[in-house]
Structures are given as structure tokens and as C-alpha cells.
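Hello,

I think I submitted the iron/sulfur cluster job twice by accident. Can you confirm which output corresponds to this input? Input:
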Amino acid sequence: MGAVETDKLIGPRATTSLVSRASPLASTARQREVLLRLSQVDFSQKAGTLTPTGIDIFQINVGKLCNMTCRHCHVDAGPDRTEEMMSRETVDLCLAALDKTAAKTVDLTGGAPELNPHFRYLVDACVARGKQVMDRCNLTVLLTGPCRDLPQWFAERGVEIVCSLPHYRKRNTDLQRGDGTFEKSIEALKRLNAAGYGKGDPRLRLTLMHNPVGAFLAGDQKSMQKEWKEGLAANYGVTFDTLVGLNNMPISRFLEWLEISGNLHSYMELLVNAYNPATLAGLMCRNTLSVGWDGRIYDCDFNQMLELDARYPDGRAAHIRDFDPARLGERSIVTARHCFGCTAGAGSSCGGAIA
Ligand code: SF4
Ligand code: SF4
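Support: Only one job matched these inputs. Its output is below.
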């Protein structure tokens, strides 16, 4: 069976970055065009104009470098993405901007955020400011040389760990993330457990994030959490606190897979038909700002990956060097067709189901 036929049956698998293959979809303009060409309703027709409620979460994407190259990745991250790395200067601008907000949580993401050379400096600076720091961790990075001490280091600082694990079964996880990923992820989870994570201590929270291995929506979070807790404890002796389910966004490498596998139209139709207005109040773009590695500011991580900048009411693209939270609070959130990924079914945001 050819690779494409296999993909149709079993869903995404590990790949290389769009940039490294000079794929047309490496262009965010091309991704936006592909979504626009689909003959489906516009998001704003359904949802109207979205506006922010405040800045509770200050998200910083410190770069696209990652030790993995998962097929579903909406960042197009990978080991080759060494150029897109937040500098110390931009990290300091982020900290200065953070001080102008009342955000309680700093959400660190990437790529693998731990691979940025200023990562520990940034975590310590946020902890010193009394912020709740959340690290979006791919687990396997914790087994790489310079990161091996991180479970204990995180525990000493009370950093919340939000880990991606597509499935509690080996086959499903390896299909999406690459062979051997599951075993490494389990080993990393054991190390986090040994450092005190995932045992109900509110200071050492361990959250797992699941996303479907294919062109369908995330399942019911509550029943899946029970199943995963039982499965991971019984088979591997691993514990965690919470499971959140995310829909795959039709952008970047998942968009490529949808096109190649012939699932693009049906997946978008699925998202549009499952539109749920009850999700609008809990969308992450309402209470989060997302800063990119180069200091550009976005309404959310997904807009960041499509290079849809957050804009001041006068139309200026927002940047961390001239950060004005009061004016940004008066903006309209930039939406487009990919937003249906957040409002389908029970909804899907960085915190999981939202309705
Ligand atoms: S681990 Fe995360 S950032 Fe890295 S390639 Fe996979 S999905 Fe992308
Ligand atoms: S993609 Fe971003 S802007 Fe669109 S609905 Fe989701 S969180 Fe909001």
C-alpha cells in the first residue's frame, strides 16, 4: 500500500518540516488561500466580531526549534528550525510588557521551548514576578542531554507541565509523532512523576493534551480522562492530573496532511457543521495574548502560525517593543476559517474543551 493510501486509513505520521522541503504550504499566505478557496461559510458570518475580555494569560512562543517533527504540528517546528529563536533582547521586552499587564499566567511554548538558550532565565524571571508558569512540553525533550535535569528543576519552581501525548496507546502515538516516541514519552512521564508531578499536588500539576490521530474531532474529555488514567496507571504505573482534548487545526503540517489524504473538504465541513456558539465565551483569544519569537503579537497561537497579527484599533500590527495593553484591549480579534477548529463540538482551546 502506498504512503498516501496508508495515511487515509491510519491518519497522520511523523514527517519533516514544510520549510525544509520547500513546500508551497511553508508560506502562510498560501495556507490562508487554501482555506479561503474552500466553498464554505466565513467564520465571522457565524460568530460575528470577537473582542477581548482582558489579558489573563501571556503566552510566549520562544521559537520553532524542536527535537521532533510531528505530522499534525501547527507550528511547522523541527530540528531544522534554528533561525526562528527568541533573542535575549526580545525575552526582556516580553518581561517588560508582562509587567504592564495583570496576567497571572505565563504560557511558554515553541517548538520545544526548553531548547531556547534563554528558557531558564525566562522561567526564573516569571517565577520571581509571582506568575504561574506553564511549560508546553513534548516530553521526549526531557530525555535530551541539556534537559535531563528539568523535571526536578521545574518542580523546585512549581512550573505547571502541559504535555502532548496523542494517545495512551503506543501505536497511535508513534503514528503521529514518529517511531519510539511513545516509549520515550512514558519514560519522561515517569521522571516527572518521580519529581512529584501528577499526584494531585496543586503546585506540581501535570496535564496531558490529546489530539486525534486523524481527520476527526477530539472525543469527550471526561470519559477519555478516566480511560487514560486507568490505561496509563495499569500498563505503565504513570499518573497525571488532567487530560485535555484538542481538535487538530487545519493549518501548517496538518493542513498538508488533509490535502494529501483527500480529507480537507470533509474535515472543514465537519468543523463547520459542528459549530457550537456556546464555545465563544471561552475562546483563548478572548483572554490571551500570544507573542511570537520575533516579538510580533497575535490574538492566539494559531493566528501566530498563520501570521495574522493582532492589530490596534488604528490598524497597526502590534509588536512587543511598543506594547500598549489598554489600546490592545480595544481591538477586534482577527478571525478566519481556521477558527472553526476552536468552535467545533465541545470546543478546543489551549485549555481543552470549553463548552
Ligand atoms: S513536539 Fe510539538 S512543536 Fe514539536 S513537532 Fe511535535 S507538535 Fe510540533
Ligand atoms: S483560532 Fe484563535 S482567533 Fe480563531 S477562534 Fe481560535 S483562538 Fe480565536
